[in-house]
Write a sequence for this structure.
């Protein structure tokens, strides 16, 4: 079961009242806080703890309602403690990047403020402050807390010092979340030991570790997990999986564990929508549209084959049940009162009923925004509904898209049911994306003052993002949701309001690093987008705050090739295929597949051909051109193909079990690794991306290229470490220099001086040319390539990355005579 934290918070909110959560290191209560949506939705009572004074003041302003506050750091004593932060005035002035907002740490820092990459910024702008600190038990006594349900600690490397004080026998929290990435290895190991000893299931996800009490975890498993399948991967069908899950759901219902059965249909794409009767039929001509009209258009959307997650009231559920199969439908029941209970509802009403707002332009006073109490609360909640769908998704989707229930009013439903364009969306949406149309104005956009948009963005807005269709990879939704929520509250509190489209527009301009868009015509009709999608003529664009447009190729996850190098062991190749099918079937279903067969044993030839026919590999037979000779041949074959990326594997590089960790503590499993690793390579424009940090033979913490580069280069690049050992390996060899550590879709990765070796990797078409085609060695060795490519990296001609995980590792269980081994 993935996404422990999201699923547990939702489940607890639905089954339990009077939930108490501790939020330690809460910053301003909104920015970067994944709990805020659940807090608002389920009215959790929260104790917010924040030591930095100016953030604490923002926190008290941002959080209203059922909350407690503590302006202290949590440490292992009562008194004062020194912390370091970046002054807000420096951030506001633009002298440092906005990512430093809210960043602080106990001094000396263990988080980003202590990194070498940020050292100069911290030395110049860092501010030491003394704050009060108290122990965890003092915190409990001060606020008269006898027990709590949830604790989230984000203390930038101080987390273990807080966690080890918690008496889990006394307080028994159901959900624990700690920041993981900034902890020492020993602290990480101790956390896992404690969680295990107190009967918690745990998940390390991205930068955090989440512990769920076993009884709660078991409840969640009954709702969210698919059954464990013991069939061999090559004989396991998707129909079998769905049938097994259906049987399990029926069994659960018989045991009264769940009330409604929905059998998920396996699909990458899930559409999210919602419909409520807002009373629009009572408006004046031009604005009036009856609920029955919407139901008629909604019926067309219900005909799509893709999975649908639908929000609505009990009346709509009856309608959906009568028009659509439950096999690919998930209905989440919510009445209009849900919108009224959100914290921004009253802010919207205050602006909506203000004469200064609705008289700013002639059309606005009679519009749906001004006349209907629930119109803006609904449309401005679409992003939150999409995020909720992500958290409650029963279909295990890879991509989620919001579609307005009445979209068939302007988009012919044949695009969905006949042309089946929705299945094409993943090829273009490698980032969260909107549809935009040109919009020339100097006054307002949907009621949102144009000059305020210009002030926020620092550039003139000349296009608007549509609200009828948007979305992207599932893993991107939470980040966009947080940005949207902060923008919504900020602008409403300042008295500015348009519709969701006004806010989507600001996000598209301001966050081009994580948001793309697609152009349509100035009439704003979304049908243009679907026509272009049908014809495969979509162009992916980004728009930055300077107003410049960047056009680039989208990532097509099908435009990749998988190459496997094998020698005299069909069973090694068969085991590799099985491990891929068990780990992520996309490795076998998406790319074109090629087997370079170097075998010399005639008894293996027919079995290899049979395996290639069975699993869709093109069989390329060579007569032992060697490991590196084979690698060079693969590079030349890839160079002549139409694929954009290449995965390279040898036949003993198996994927490992999903629950395992490597010896360096990196996780081995992440769902959808195929797509996510390609997204990282594409996003960072990498020439090659290594998939493993750790290997049987070593790892990437030491710089192995040091052993292989020419002596003159070694002396220049490592002047203080330029002598090789007389024999063997040097335990004090130089460490690998990483320029930055980032995360994408919960996969951490590093960029920098990554050395090349013949391990599993992704290579781009341009990277392949620089690495293997521009310079060809007559008799290449792995060490030769390592030296050559490291020198290209230092010359900034080659850009490489590595996943901070270990999904595969060498395991040659069938050996051959040493004299048969050839390099080239």
């Amino acid at each position: 079961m993935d996404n422990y934290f999201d699923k547990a918070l939702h489940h607890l909110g639905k089954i339990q009242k009077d939930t108490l959560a501790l939020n330690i290191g809460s910053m301003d209560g909104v920015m970067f806080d994944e709990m805020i949506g659940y807090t608002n939705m389920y009215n959790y009572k929260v104790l917010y703890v924040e030591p930095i004074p100016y953030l604490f003041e923002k926190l008290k302003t941002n959080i209203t309602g059922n909350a407690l506050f503590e302006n202290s750091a949590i440490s292992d004593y009562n008194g004062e403690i020194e912390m370091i932060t970046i002054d807000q005035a420096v951030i506001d002035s633009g002298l440092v990047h906005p990512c430093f907002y809210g960043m602080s740490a106990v001094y000396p820092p263990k988080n980003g403020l202590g990194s070498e990459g940020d050292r100069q910024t911290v030395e110049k702008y860092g501010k030491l402050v003394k704050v009060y600190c108290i122990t965890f038990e003092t915190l409990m006594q001060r606020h008269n807390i006898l027990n709590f349900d949830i604790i989230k600690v984000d203390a930038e490397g101080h987390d273990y010092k807080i966690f080890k004080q918690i008496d889990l026998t006394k307080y028994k929290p159901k959900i624990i979340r700690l920041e993981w990435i900034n902890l020492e290895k020993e602290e990480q190991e101790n956390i896992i030991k404690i969680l295990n000893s107190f009967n918690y299931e745990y998940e390390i996800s991205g930068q955090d570790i989440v512990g769920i009490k076993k009884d709660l975890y078991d409840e969640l498993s009954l709702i969210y997990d698919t059954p464990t399948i013991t069939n061999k991967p090559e004989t396991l069908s998707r129909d079998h999986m769905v049938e097994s899950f259906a049987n399990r759901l029926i069994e659960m219902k018989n045991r009264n564990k769940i009330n409604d059965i929905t059998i998920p249909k396996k699909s990458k794409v899930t559409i999210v929508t919602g419909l409520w009767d807002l009373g629009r039929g009572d408006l004046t001509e031009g604005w009036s549209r009856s609920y029955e009209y919407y139901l008629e258009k909604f019926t067309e959307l219900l005909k799509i084959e893709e999975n649908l997650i639908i929000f609505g009231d009990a009346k709509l559920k009856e309608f959906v049940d009568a028009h659509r199969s439950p096999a690919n439908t998930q209905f989440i029941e919510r009445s209009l009162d849900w919108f009224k209970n959100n914290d921004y509802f009253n802010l919207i009403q205050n602006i909506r009923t203000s004469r200064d707002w609705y008289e700013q332009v002639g059309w606005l006073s009679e519009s749906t925004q001004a006349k209907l109490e629930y119109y803006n609360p609904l449309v401005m909640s679409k992003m939150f509904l999409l995020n909720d769908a992500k958290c409650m998704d029963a279909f295990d989707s890879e991509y989620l898209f919001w579609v307005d229930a009445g979209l068939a009013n302007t988009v012919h439903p044949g695009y969905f049911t006949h042309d089946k364009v929705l299945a094409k969306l993943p090829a273009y949406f490698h980032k969260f994306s909107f549809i935009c149309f040109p919009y020339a104005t100097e006054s307002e956009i949907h009621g949102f003052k144009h000059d305020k948009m210009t002030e926020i963005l620092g550039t003139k807005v000349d296009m608007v993002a549509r609200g009828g269709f948007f979305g992207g990879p599932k893993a991107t939704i939470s980040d966009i949701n947080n940005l949207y929520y902060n923008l919504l509250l900020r602008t409403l509190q300042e008295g500015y309001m348009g519709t969701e489209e006004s806010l989507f527009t600001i996000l598209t301009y301001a966050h081009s690093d994580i948001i793309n868009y697609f152009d349509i015509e100035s009439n704003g009709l979304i049908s243009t987008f679907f026509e272009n999608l049908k014809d495969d003529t979509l162009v992916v664009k980004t728009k930055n705050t300077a107003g410049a447009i960047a056009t680039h190729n989208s990532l097509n996850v099908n435009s990749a090739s998988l190459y496997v190098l094998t020698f005299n062991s069909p069973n090694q190749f068969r085991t590799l295929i099985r491990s891929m099918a068990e780990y992520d079937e996309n490795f076998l279903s998406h790319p074109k597949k090629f087997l370079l067969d170097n075998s010399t044993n005639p008894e293996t030839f027919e079995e290899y051909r049979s395996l290639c026919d069975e699993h869709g590999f093109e069989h390329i037979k060579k007569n032992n051109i060697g490991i590196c000779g084979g690698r060079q041949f693969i590079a030349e074959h890839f160079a002549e193909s139409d694929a954009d990326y290449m995965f390279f594997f040898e036949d003993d590089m198996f994927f490992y079990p999903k629950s395992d960790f490597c010896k360096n503590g990196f996780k081995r499993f992440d769902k959808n690794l195929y797509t996510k690793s390609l997204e990282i390579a594409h996003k960072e424009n990498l020439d090659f991306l290594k998939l493993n940090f750790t290997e049987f033979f070593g790892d990437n913490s030491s710089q192995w290229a040091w052993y292989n580069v020419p002596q003159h280069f070694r002396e220049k690049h490592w002047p203080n470490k330029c002598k090789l050992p007389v024999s063997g390996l040097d335990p004090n060899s130089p460490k690998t220099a990483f320029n930055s550590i980032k995360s994408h879709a919960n996969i951490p990765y590093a960029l920098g001086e990554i050395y090349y070796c013949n391990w599993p990797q992704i290579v781009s078409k341009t990277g392949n040319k620089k690495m293997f085609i521009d310079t060809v060695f007559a008799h290449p060795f792995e060490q030769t390539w390592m030296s050559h490519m490291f020198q290209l990296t230092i010359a900034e001609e080659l850009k490489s990355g590595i996943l901070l995980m270990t999904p595969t590792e060498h395991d040659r269980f069938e050996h051959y005579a040493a004299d048969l081994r050839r390099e080239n």
In short: The first strand starts at residue 20 and ends at 24. Residues 4-221 form a domain with the Rossmann fold fold (CATH 3.40.50). The mean pLDDT is 85.
